[in-house]
Specification:
The structure is a homodimer of 147-residue chains. Chain A has 147 residues and is mainly β. The first copy, chain A, is built from 2 helices and 8 strands; from the N terminus they run βαββββββαβ. Chain A has a single domain, classed as Roll (Pnp Oxidase, Chain A). Chains A, B: It holds the Pfam family Pyridox_ox_2.
């Protein structure tokens, strides 16, 4: 990042590194023309060929399972540290894993933060992964009220 | 929150209080069947009747302006503190404010964190505001690797 641009595009490698370091993000999806967004815990899965996808667990009956196979979704993580923020967005489609594939979630650090039962595993198959690093300009954080 | 339920629904008042305390969230929207999600800075606006909406700034040419008037959007904020997390979701429609209304943004603490020009003001008119408080169960944060 140079001094001239407050926003820098991340490389795909940087995006996947950030995705691997986090475990919490937000999933955006549409059900019968209704726009939804919900926080989820996720983990990155990687197959023998190096293809990477995201897995998360959900509960039977959750709205997400109303999403048809192949439905378009978008997923975001973000992070702040001092004067820099990063945001990574994965766009792709959601796929409800069958019983023969659910074991993939068991070998990952896929750790729901909330202790409600979640038996279904959903995969986000990426079509596009993009990320940006922002140089933050928030003088009010160090300003004191005058007067 | 009691010990029995790891997830508690927030009241609308609690949701608006949290929305007022934050200034950063993620907006989910659809453009020509493509699902998008993007981080935004926002502020809560309140009219003389007490009706509350969210305002944010964006740049000419941004994808969001491709959203037709009245398009469904969803917006989320979340926060963690110790063993508790909260998430608030506003579902509603996006409205690009005309020049005669843009002044509404000027009296709010609507402070973009990134110094790129953003001349357009968009309002999110809420149809539904929901929030949840989660009791987190993350024993691995205090566990040490064995062996």
């Amino acid at each position: 990042m140079n001094d001239e641009s407050p926003v820098v595009e991340l490389t795909p490698e940087e995006c996947w590194e950030l995705l691997g370091e986090h475990e919490f993000g937000r999933l955006a999806f549409t059900v019968v023309d209704e726009q939804h967004i919900t926080p989820i815990n996720y983990a990155v899965d990687r197959d023998a060929l190096g293809n990477q996808t995201l897995l998360f667990r959900t509960a039977p009956g959750a709205k997400l399972l109303a999403v048809e196979i192949g439905a378009e979704v978008a997923f975001e993580i973000d992070d702040f540290a001092g004067e820099t923020a990063v945001s990574v967005v994965v766009r792709g489609h959601a796929r409800h894993l069958g019983e023969d594939e659910e074991h993939r979630a068991e070998t990952l650090p896929l750790r729901p933060w909330v202790g409600t039962p979640k038996y279904d595993v959903v995969e986000i198959v990426p079509a596009e992964v993009t990320g940006r690093r922002f140089r933050l300009d928030r003088p009010w954080l160090t300003m004191r009220p005058s007067g």
